[in-house]
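FAQ: What does the model actually see?

It sees only this:
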Amino acid sequence: MAKAPTFEERKAHYEAQWSIMTVKPERASSVDRSARLAISNKSRYLAVANATKVPWFVIAIIHMREASGSFAGVLHNGEHIIGTGRKTKLVPAGRGPFSTWEAAAIDALKMHPISKITVWDIPHICYGTEAYNGWGYWWHGDKSSAYLWAGTNIDGGGKYVADGVWSSSAQDAQNGCMAVLKRIIALDPTVAVAIGIHTEPAPTPAPAPKPTPAPAPAPQKSSWLSSLLGALAAIFKRKK
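And it is asked to produce this:
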C-alpha cells in the first residue's frame, strides 16, 4: 500500500482550499439542513467527545458522511447494526456488536489515529477527517478529497463508488465534511472559538449626529413702538 502523506505535506493545501471554499448554490439548502441536524444532536456528540477528546463538531461531520446523521448507522462505515447483535461487514469489518450508537462511535474513533490529534484547527480537522476516510484520493493523484470538499467549488469529481472501487467520472452526491463544518461555524459561534477562527464582529453603527438647534429669531419690535418711531422720524424730517 502506498505511503500516507504527512500532515506537513498537506497543511498548506488544506489552508489554501479552506480559504477559497464556497458551497455550490444548488447544495446550500442541503448543507444547511445537515448543519442544523448536527447542532440539534450536539448533546449526543458531546457524550462521545468527552470519552474520546475528539470535538463534537468533528464527530458530527464524520457522522454526516458515514451515516447521513442517522443514529442507526455506526460511525465506522454507516452500517445499521446498532442493537442487532451483528458485527460490521464493511471496512473496518468485525467491529461490535454494539448496543448503542455512542458505544460504536467511541470504538470507531479510538481505533483510529484521529483520536491522537490534540490541536483542532482547520488543517488538523482536514487531515484527521481525510485520514479517517482513507488516502485514496491522494493515491489517485487527486489532492482534493470529495470526503472533505464535495458540494463545494473545490471538488473536481471522482470518488470511490464501493470499497476499493475508484471512478474518476463519478460525482459525489453527499456533502463534504468541510462544507457542513463551515455552516456549523456560521450557526454556532462557539465552534469558531474552539477552532481558533477569528471572526470580525459586525461594526457598531455610528450614533446619528444630534441636530444643530436653529438660531433664535431676532427679537421683533412691537408694532406700536415701530409706528411711534416712524412718526417722530417724519416730524424731525419736516422741521429741517
